[in-house]
Design goal:
Elements: H1 3-16, H2 22-34, H3 38-43, H4 51-65, H5 70-74, E1 76-79, E2 82-85, H6 98-107, E3 116-120, H7 126-134, E4 139-144, H8 147-159, E5 166-170, E6 181-186, E7 191-192, H9 201-206, H10 209-212, E8 213-215, H11 220-232, E9 233-242, H12 248-254, E10 259-265, E11 271-277
Parallel strand pairs: 3-4, 3-6, 4-5, 6-9, 7-8
Antiparallel strand pairs: 1-2, 9-11, 10-11
Helix pairs in contact: 1-2, 1-4, 2-4, 6-7
The protein binds glutamine.
Amino acid sequence: MQLKQALTDAVSRLTGENVPSPRLNAELLLRFTLDCDRAYLFAHPERELTADELTGYDAALAERARGVPAQYITGHQEFWGMDLIVTPAVLIPRPETEHVIETVLQLADKTNDNLRVVDVGTGSGCIALALAKEFPSAEIHATDISPDALEIARTNAARLQLDKRIQFHQTDLLLGLQPQFDFVVSNPPYVGECEADQVQLEVRKFEPRTAVFAGATGLEVIERLIPQAHVVLDPGGWLVMEISGTITDQTKNLLRDWSDVELIADLQSIPRVVRARKSRC
Ligand code: GLN
């Protein structure tokens, strides 16, 4: 079968299975199967696919049709210009999370060569890796309670040659970390079980539950993280954390003893990141 035909068939199959963006998914999975870029697909519409390629493409499409996110099939996701490995052991990094990096870039004192940063619940390592890239002299720590997630984060660090830059810790949030950080950054689990039916089925079914859901209300992890961040931050240090629009008021309330509390909206004008400073006195 020719490439062009395989692509057309895949688009109708995914459409029939109600997969969102069927064309995009069909192209992405064909590129994955053939290990080629998008331009190749358009330059070689008449290229015959081998039996093995067709079998591989069929298997990838079947996975996608049953709801597996494309990133878990291809094993890759881009974040802050970096190609990251992802498996079902880690949350798929989202573009919104890049607002955490932008916020740190705005707040950080560029003249401080000894910046100390900790990323809590690092998952794939996306936030820690982006900050290691942006701040070449900073000391970066990353924690996760899941050993499987930490293994992926370490793999990503090694692939990007940033492994010497990040110290990984398997722990619950910040337990066991020594104080004197300038930044605590995190994209913590913040979805409540009570709002589970508003979460995409694919997320609920395939992404690690503990990375998405915090507990009944969604505040359970943030409630523990805020006081722990207060302990490890230096006076004047910043907490920069991703949140959702549904918990902004409660989060602000939990930060009532902090200074310079501000919400940062994402491109859809939904509050997405909160920043707060540990008071100097
Ligand atoms: N820090 C990772 C991310 O932002 C993982 C977050 C998580 O597992 N809640 O994608």
